[in-house]
């Protein structure tokens, strides 16, 4: 095992934790145990990305909006200037999905962060859009007895078996959208809660978009998720231009967009292609 550490923690006031960085072939001992089953779901705050919301809502046979209303808290993070979705109850008590037997009621659809523990993933998006992943061992809480086992895994096998590998490309699409907004559109300079709210249907409520545009299940939910994030990129680019930032802020009278924003968003959602402007 290599002896490198990652500093984890976002924002100037966030606590900085030093965690041991691991390589994919590094081994660690871990297996969940009955004695502490569910204790990890009592005290953590679970942040959800749009793919987590998609998978959980579908598992519960709910639309994304209903899922958010029933099970989540939506906040506007004043430091990152970005909307954040928290799983309800996880801040002050047991997670909403922990049952009386201390088992996860949504285990097949559990969020990425629940799958990854006791590992953590930090993803950095490079200027060329490439995602660089770092994996680290999370500081174990005293109640967690998972390392008291002879069972040894590699980092790679853990991520594969828990379904993190399969989800990562879709989760990374969202990180790329945030990276684009922050670096190309300077979103922290102009994003506010009312502006962020305009993104919510695209990020979290596919059923509303499908109903409005009469898009059926012939466009599967993975493809529709990709289209939604493309449309969110369009919306963000237009919004940024209104504040004087991003590529469209430099539009001149000659290259002004021919189609309205709503028409371009509609086109992306219907076809998956970027509209010609
Ligand atoms: S979603 Fe499931 S695994 Fe994750 S915190 Fe809640 S009960 Fe625990
Ligand atoms: S071993 Fe740790 S992660 Fe597993 S159930 Fe117990 S407290 Fe939760």
Itemize the secondary structure elements and their pairings:
Layout: E1 4-8, E2 17-22, E3 27-29, E4 47-48, H1 50-59, H2 64-71, E5 72-77, E6 82-87, H3 112-116, E7 119-125, E8 131-137, E9 152-154, H4 155-161, H5 164-183, H6 193-197, H7 200-204, H8 206-213, H9 221-242, H10 261-271
Antiparallel strand pairs: 1-2, 2-8, 3-9, 4-6, 5-6, 7-8
Bound molecules: iron/sulfur cluster (2 copies).
Give a nutshell description of this structure.
By secondary structure, the protein is α+β, with helices and mostly antiparallel strands. The protein contains ten helices and nine strands.
In the sheet with the most strands, the strands line up as 1-2-8-7
Bound molecules: iron/sulfur cluster
Portion in strands:
15-25%
Q: Let me know the number of strands.
A: 9
User: What's the overall geometry?
Assistant: globular
Structural class, from secondary structure content?
A: alpha+beta
Number of helices: 10
Please outline the major beta sheet: 4 strands, antiparallel
Order of helices and strands: EEEEHHEEHEEEHHHHHHH
Instruction: Quote the average pLDDT.
Output: 88
Low-confidence stretches: 1-15
Helix content: 25-40%
How many domains is the backbone divided into? Answer: 2
Question: Separation of termini?
Answer: 52 Å
Radius of gyration: 20 Å
């Amino acid at each position: 095992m290599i002896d490198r550490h990652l500093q984890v923690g976002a924002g100037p006031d966030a606590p900085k934790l030093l965690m041991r960085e691991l390589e994919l072939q590094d081994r660690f001992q871990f297996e969940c145990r009955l004695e502490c089953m569910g204790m990890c779901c009592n005290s953590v705050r679970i942040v959800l990305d749009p793919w987590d919301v998609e998978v959980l809502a579908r598992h519960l046979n709910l639309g994304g909006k209903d899922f958010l209303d029933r099970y989540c808290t939506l906040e506007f993070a004043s430091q990152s200037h970005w909307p954040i979705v928290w799983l309800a109850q996880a801040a002050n008590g047991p997670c909403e999905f922990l049952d009386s037997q201390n088992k996860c009621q949504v285990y097949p659809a559990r969020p990425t962060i629940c799958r990854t523990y006791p590992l953590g993933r930090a993803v950095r998006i490079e200027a060329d859009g490439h995602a660089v992943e770092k994996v680290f061992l999370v500081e174990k809480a005293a109640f967690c007895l998972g390392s008291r086992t002879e069972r040894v895994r590699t980092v790679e096998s853990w991520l594969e078996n828990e379904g993190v590998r399969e989800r990562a490309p879709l989760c990374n699409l969202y990180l790329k959208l945030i990276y684009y907004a922050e670096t190309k559109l300077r979103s922290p300079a102009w994003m506010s809660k009312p502006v962020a709210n305009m993104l919510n249907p695209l990020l979290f409520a596919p059923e509303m978009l499908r109903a409005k545009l009469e898009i059926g299940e012939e466009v599967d939910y993975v493809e529709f998720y990709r289209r939604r994030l493309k449309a969110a990129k369009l919306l963000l680019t237009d919004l940024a231009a209104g504040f004087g930032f991003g590529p469209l802020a430099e539009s001149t009278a000659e290259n002004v967009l021919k189609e309205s924003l709503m028409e371009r968003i509609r086109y992306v959602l219907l076809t998956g292609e970027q509209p010609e402007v």
